[in-house]
Write the structure tokens for this entry.
Amino acid sequence: MLRVGLGVDVHAFAPPEAGRRLILGGVDVPHERGLAGHSDADVLAHAVTDALLGAAGLEDIGHYFPDTDPRWKDADSIELLREVRRVVGEEWSVANVDAVLICERPKVRDYRDEMRRNLAGALGVEVGQVSVRGTTSERLGFTGRGEGIAAQAVCLISKV
Ligand SMILES: Nc1ccn([C@@H]2O[C@H](COP(=O)(O)O)[C@@H](O)[C@H]2O)c(=O)n1
Ligand SMILES: C[C@@]1(CO)OP(=O)(O)OP(=O)(O)OC[C@H]1O
């Protein structure tokens, strides 16, 4: 049996004085502002996590890691993805993940391969099974105005 899941996440940029780092797919991307969030605000890891949970027909990321729980304050979202992969169980294998980051800046192309490695490591799959790319929204909307970053991901799983 095959199942597909879709994950979508959005995080606003924090003001520069907040001193947040910009973490995308587990990569510390050099940028003047990081994203606001209870965790490390890794919008890409969150979208992939929800895509996997959706594919497995489980609850959403906020169910497993509530943003009211101090345990997840500044949490490493790649580790949360690793935990969700464990929850999904070995009866499912991950066929592939495809994910998109939507922002004008930073350009993510130089960091894509490291993001893919981090996501693949957490999922226990080969790097070739994970794709990541960036796109702008042609300066339209909140991403176009540089107010935040959006991410979307799909994940295909199959019953072992
Ligand atoms: N945050 C981003 C946005 C874009 N890219 C790269 O630029 C290409 C063109 O983007 P358009 O939105 O103008 O189509 C895109 O295909 C990416 O290679 C990026 O790396 N990071
Ligand atoms: C992982 C969590 C934990 O608080 O991260 P947040 O930074 O709150 O990010 P969000 O995508 O709003 O919700 C997911 C949360 O479960």
